[in-house]
Design a protein that fits this description.
Elements (H helix, E strand, L loop, with lengths): L3 H10 L2 E7 L4 E5 L8 E2 L13 E7 L2 E6 L4 E6 L7 E2 L4 E8 L2 H12 L1 E4 L4 E5 L1 H10 L5 E2 L4 E7 L2 E6 L5 E6 L6 E2 L4 E6 L4 H14 L5
Helix pairs in contact: 1-2, 2-4
């Protein structure tokens, strides 16, 4: 059985992730002049994330500048300033950002490691079968018990629909990672399943995160 509380302690010991910023296309790179190591940057913000994040750099291609914006809040960890004013290929590493994990990100990380994830086998839209869909909407997915081999999904692709059976340990649907009419790529998780005996432990850790987690800058 996975030690969920130990997993939380491991996250606390390294409460951030490093984000590599790469050139989206080829061109001449120019870094924002007011950025340096440890400079703070912001991601998209506003009520609807309508405000773009900090401008990190720009790429000039055929006399057109295209800005590269930070997609996360954090601080600059490294900048490859030797590339300033040079022509770079698409995918060239420009800088790295250290992003401290938010409460929601920590919860998501813990759940994806603690739960058994069932993945989409192909690019398609996914739906719960009606009997499961009703239970999820009426009584919450955590009250829905599923077993290995149980038919719980409808796969919709190119005007065809096919049933999909769950493959994994018996348990409750603790997390749902898709919505109706959403195109899901193959390999993305659809649901996270938890043994009934472990639900209380997971909910205890989630509560601790929500009440105790201190988000970094």
């Amino acid at each position: 059985m996975l030690d969920i509380k130990q997993l939380l302690e491991e996250v606390k010991a390294s409460p951030y992730k490093e984000i590599t910023i790469k050139a989206p296309h080829c061109g001449v790179v120019s870094f924002s002049k007011d950025l340096d190591i440890d400079s703070k940057v912001t991601g998209p913000h506003g009520a609807w994330k309508e405000k773009k994040g900090t401008i990190l750099a720009s790429i000039n291609r055929e006399h057109n500048d295209k800005n590269i914006y930070s997609q996360e809040k954090g601080s600059i960890l490294s900048i490859n300033k030797e590339l300033e004013g040079t022509y770079v290929e698409a995918g060239t590493e420009l800088m790295r950002i250290r992003h401290f994990l938010s409460k929601d990100e920590v919860v998501s990380l813990i759940l994806k490691k603690a739960l058994h994830l069932f993945y989409a086998p192909e690019n398609a839209k996914y739906y719960f079968v009606p009997s499961v869909d009703i239970k999820v909407k009426v009584s919450d997915s955590k009250n829905v018990m599923i077993q290995n081999g149980m038919e719980i999904f409808i796969v919709s692709r190119m005007k065809r629909e096919m049933p999909l059976c769950y493959n994994g340990p018996d348990g409750v649907i603790y997390a749902v990672y898709f919505t109706n009419n959403q195109n899901i790529e193959a390999g993305q998780p659809l649901i996270g399943v938890c043994p009934p005996s472990q639900v209380a432990d997971i909910e205890d850790v989630v509560l601790r995160i929500q009440t105790e987690w201190q988000e970094g800058e």
